[in-house]
Amino acid sequence: MPLIEHGWLVLGVVAVLAYLLGAVPFGLVTAKVMGLGDIRQIGSGNIGATNVLRTGNKLAAFLTLVLDAGKGAVAVLVARYALGEDAAQVAGLAAFVGHIYPVYLGFKGGKGVATFLGILLALSFPVGLAACATWLVVALVTRYSSLAALMAAALSSLWLFYLNQGQILFLVVILTILIYIRHAANLKRLNAGTEPKIGAKKG
């Protein structure tokens, strides 16, 4: 963990602002702007890029991926620039929680994978790259986005040690636990062999 240099009031304000940014449902917004309807009524009902891809619109899925990752990265980078590392980590956690439990959608949000990767890239670019590479390799080999996400999250802590970035371990462990909680249904489907693969149109 970084040295806590700011008071709880300051960090609380950072958390609220980062949460509100993280809670912006870019998948839902992108789908509506591009005339794809309510993404919550398509496929798995998730607001993330993988489900947006099930509409068949690759551009919309790509934009959702970039924007969801970007909001996590922006929250971290702005907080770091303004206040330092303690604020950056608080902002990363708050933005992630905002994405998976957004106030704008009745606290029913996405699963946090793109936002998680964006946060990692901003906190430690080498670790973020390693996590992205892990996701990509597993996704290409298995065609399961959920399995790729779970592996990328699980191995991210190992990448921290390998790349000597242990100062963000506590945050990454928390984010990894939240990702696994949000993927509980996916884990059951993977075990049952019923998990849809990347690009599959479900429902």
Describe the structure in your own words.
This protein has helices spanning 8-22, 26-33, 49-53, 58-82, 85-100, 113-123, 125-142, 145-162, 169-182, 184-192. It is mainly alpha-helical and 203 residues long. It has one domain. Helix 1 (8-22) packs parallel to helix 5, helix 4 packs antiparallel against helix 5 (85-100) and helix 4 runs parallel beside helix 6.
List the helices and strands and how they pair.
Blueprint lengths: L7 H15 L3 H8 L15 H5 L4 H25 L2 H16 L12 H11 L1 H18 L2 H18 L6 H14 L1 H9 L11
Helix pairs in contact: 1-4, 1-5, 2-4, 4-5, 4-6, 5-6, 5-9, 6-7, 7-8, 8-9
Q: Mind describing the biggest β-sheet?
A: none
Structural class: mainly alpha
Rounded average pLDDT: 91
Which parts are unreliable, with pLDDT below 50 for 5 consecutive residues or more?
none
> What order do the helices and strands follow?
HHHHHHHHHH
Number of helices: 10
Taken as a percent bin, the fraction of beta residues is under 5%
Which value, in Å, is the CA radius of gyration? 16 Å
Total number of strands: 0
Keywords:
203 residues; mainly alpha; 0% strand
Quick structural gist:
The protein contains ten helices and no strands. It has helices spanning 8-22, 26-33, 49-53, 58-82, 85-100, 113-123, 125-142, 145-162, 169-182, 184-192.
